[in-house]
Amino acid sequence: MTHRERAAQMLADAGIVLTERDELEISDLGLGRFEEVGLSLVVYENNERYCAKELVLLSHQLCPEHRHPPVGADPGKQETFRVRTGEVTLFVDGHGEMTLRPGDQFTIAPDTLHWFRAGDEGAIISEFSSRSRDEHDVFSDPRIVR
Amino acid sequence: MTHRERAAQMLADAGIVLTERDELEISDLGLGRFEEVGLSLVVYENNERYCAKELVLLSHQLCPEHRHPPVGADPGKQETFRVRTGEVTLFVDGHGEMTLRPGDQFTIAPDTLHWFRAGDEGAIISEFSSRSRDEHDVFSDPRIVR
User: Fold this and answer.
1) Fewest CB atoms within 10 Å of the CB: A27, A33, A119, A138?
2) Do residues B19 and A84 touch, judged by C-beta distance below 8 A?
3) How far apart are CA B22 and CA B12, in angstroms?
4) For an interface test with B, which of A19, A20, A45, A54 has the most B Cβ atoms less than 10 Å from its Cβ?
5) What is the tens place of the pLDDT at every residue in A46-85?
């Protein structure tokens, strides 16, 4: 199976229905080690006021440390992670590492360093947030490009 | 089963996990005919910038016509409905009636009249929106109180 097919299968197994209008994006964050570092995502809606995505992590896959800085009048993206399936280790600067399981959620303040990694079974996370401007994300690893 | 138990069962059947921290709210909108008019909902997050909820409708249950008016500097709630299970008839002023099935979504502009009703099997709808201020909603039926 391709990476895209694996992510699509995880969503289907969780009962999350996609249509032909949904785009399942696969990102290795430019590092070329997708199975270890990267994520798959579906952006349901991203407008001036709010954003909603589904994030899919393969087993032990890491979304590495980054923050969402202010952009113009926007104080930076604020985001709420709600775990749907699997187990997620979430690090948030000032809060340390926490383990989130299905039904657990956490809201990350703007411009705050965070990273997250899935457990053995991979994970699906619903992300609710203010407007998403991925191109402005600041990753701690300078090799990462979005 | 109570109304709450029925809504909780529908969420569980859809693989949507709630925890003890989640509150499943049952609303008959003050009309006392919950099975016909009303809805159940879980508010995952509602802050100054965005809001996310899960809405549950029983078979043929109606959320009656209303709009989200401007409140101070807020131009009114903008909301995106994404159907997770079941079939939903959604009416939006200026767009008429449409049928939404799992994976279908529609974004409703602020201050725009709309109503929605579930089909035979009931429905679960994920709602992504700007801040929710339910107490300001304007329902076309003056008997309705939130």
Assistant:
1) A33
2) no
3) 13
4) A45
5) 999 999 999 999 999 999 999 999 999 999 999 999 999 9
Chain-centroid distance, C-alpha A2: 20
Is residue A36 over pLDDT 80? yes
Which pLDDT value is given to residue B22? Answer: 98
Over range B19-45, report the average pLDDT. Answer: 97
pLDDT tens per residue across span B50-76:
999 999 999 999 999 999 999 999 999
| Cβ–Cβ < 8 Å for B97, A16 | no
Interface residue ranges in chain A relative to chain B, Cβ cutoff 8 Å? 14-19, 21-22, 44-45, 47, 49-52, 78, 80, 82, 84-85, 102-105, 107, 126, 128-130
* Whole-structure pTM value: 0.97
Decide: residue B41, CB within 10 A, 0-12 exposed, 13-18 middle, 19+ buried.
buried
Q: Phi/psi zone of residue B71: left (φ > 0), alpha (ψ -120 to 50 degrees), beta? A: beta
**Confidence bin at B145 (pLDDT 50/70/90):** confident
| Among B57, B64, B75, residue whose Cα is nearest residue B125 | B57
Instruction: Output the average pLDDT for chain A.
Output: 97
How many CB contacts within 8 angstroms connect chain A with chain B? 80
- The shortest CB-CB distance from A44 to any of B19, B22, B80 is to B80
| Interchain contact, A107 vs B47, CB within 8 Å | yes
Torsion on CA atoms A62, A124, A112, A136, rounded to nearest 10: 80
Predicted interface score ipTM higher than 0.95: yes
- Whether residue B49 and residue A105 make contact (CB cut-off 8 A), yes or no, is no
User: In whole angstroms, what is the distance from residue A2 CA to residue A47 CA?
Assistant: 30
